[in-house]
Design goal:
Elements: E1 6-10, H1 15-27, E2 31-37, H2 44-47, E3 52-54, H3 57-61, E4 68-71, H4 78-87, E5 91-94, H5 102-115, E6 119-121, H6 129-140, E7 146-154, H7 175-191, E8 196-202, E9 213-219, E10 225-231, E11 241-245, E12 248-252, H8 258-263, E13 282-287, E14 293-298, H9 306-318, H10 326-337
Parallel strand pairs: 1-2, 1-4, 2-3, 4-5, 5-6, 7-10
Antiparallel strand pairs: 7-11, 8-9, 9-10, 11-12, 12-13, 13-14
Helix pairs in contact: 4-5, 5-10, 7-10
Length: about 350
């Protein structure tokens, strides 16, 4: 007996919907890309002529045939729209940040349980090629006991963002809530909940009213220290990932090609999709017992955001545990809410 595809609708068709959700929902046979909320312009119809257009969130939520709602609207609207979708009996795939406080997240998780529905976090960067390479090295044990891990997400964008909700002080504004969930989720997925943490925030762009720099220092058992850092004023970014252990080191640049490929119109089904170009390999340096160090270049397997949609399907259709757990989301909010050092 065949299993029906998951009828799915988007709440918006901005960059996130156009690049990171719609192409994968259209490509995955386990989903039916069904509808979108577009109040004025019908932009999604240019790419998907058969899509159903809703002119309001309420209209979409009233459609009983919609099973999964993707909340991909501005970050300061995530909690309220996720709450409305859950209350309407829909499963929710929620963009980052999933909430602006731990209390908000706990309220959403409680509502999901009451409704018998799933609240699933869209943490797509677990499926980046560069981070997948880091995961393989860590899980292989080749570095020995880990001592340091540095994860960075740097850009050079001195001008203020034209999206005002990203620059106005308030819930979910600033770089910590924009890029922090990516780095935090990656660290939690590898190392678990830290024993303690400290947070530093900074504002350095001219006229900036929100943080454009952050650093989280996470402390783990057995002396492992993890630093998560992002800045909008790095003109020459270094490696995105640097790890040191008792038997070696690993360095990897931010090389995942998916966003660039999607912007160029490459579909997730293309043979070259997600493949890093030659010359972008990671550098694995391993020391012999005598102290001789040998460095080799390690190519990454292709990145593929179809992976997160496959886990969504497995959760909704086969009750397989979703890899981004409720506990990990709560740890993430604890770190986002942490008081910054003076």
């Amino acid at each position: 007996m065949s299993i029906a595809p998951i009828r799915t609708a988007l709440l918006a068709y901005g960059m996130s919907g156009k690049l990171f959700q719609a192409p994968f929902l259209a490509a995955h046979p386990g989903f039916e890309l069904y509808g979108v909320v577009e109040r004025t312009e019908a932009r999604m119809h240019l790419d998907y002529p058969d899509i159903r257009r809703f002119t309001s969130v309420a209209e979409l939520l009233a459609d009983a045939s919609v099973e999964l709602v993707v909340v991909n609207t501005p970050s300061n609207t995530h909690v309220e729209l996720a709450r409305q979708a859950l209350a309407a009996g829909k499963h929710v795939l929620l963009e980052k940040p999933v909430a602006t406080s731990l209390a908000e997240l706990q309220g959403l998780l409680a509502l999901a349980r009451e409704q018998g529905r799933h609240l699933l976090a869209y943490q797509n960067r677990r499926w980046d090629s560069d981070f997948q390479a880091v995961r393989r090295v860590v899980e292989s044990g080749q570095l020995g006991q880990l001592i340091e891990a540095h994860f960075r997400f740097d850009r050079y964008k001195p001008a203020l963002n034209t999206k005002k909700f990203k620059e106005e002080p308030g819930p979910a504004a600033g770089l910590l809530h924009d890029l922090g969930p990516h780095l935090i989720d990656q660290a939690l997925s590898l190392f678990g909940r830290p024993m303690s943490a400290t947070k530093t925030l900074g504002r350095h762009r001219p006229s900036s009213r929100v943080d454009d720099f952050f650093c989280l220092h996470l402390r783990y058992p057995r002396g492992l220290n993890v630093w998560l850092t992002a800045s909008l004023l790095v003109a020459a970014p270094g490696p995105a990932y640097v790890l040191h252990g008792t038997r070696g080191s690993f360095r990897k640049d931010r090389t995942d090609p998916q966003e660039t490929q999607l912007l160029a119109g490459l579909l997730p089904t293309a043979p070259t999709y997600g493949q890093e170009p030659p010359g972008q390999e990671g550098r694995l340096s391993l020391a012999s017992p005598e102290g001789r160090v040998r460095t080799v270049r390690t190519p990454a397997a292709p990145g593929n955001y179809l992976g997160i949609f496959e886990t969504v399907r497995e959760t909704l259709r086969h009750q397989v545990a979703y890899p981004i757990s409720d506990a990990q989301l709560q740890w993430q909010l604890e770190l986002l809410e942490l008081s910054a050092e003076a």
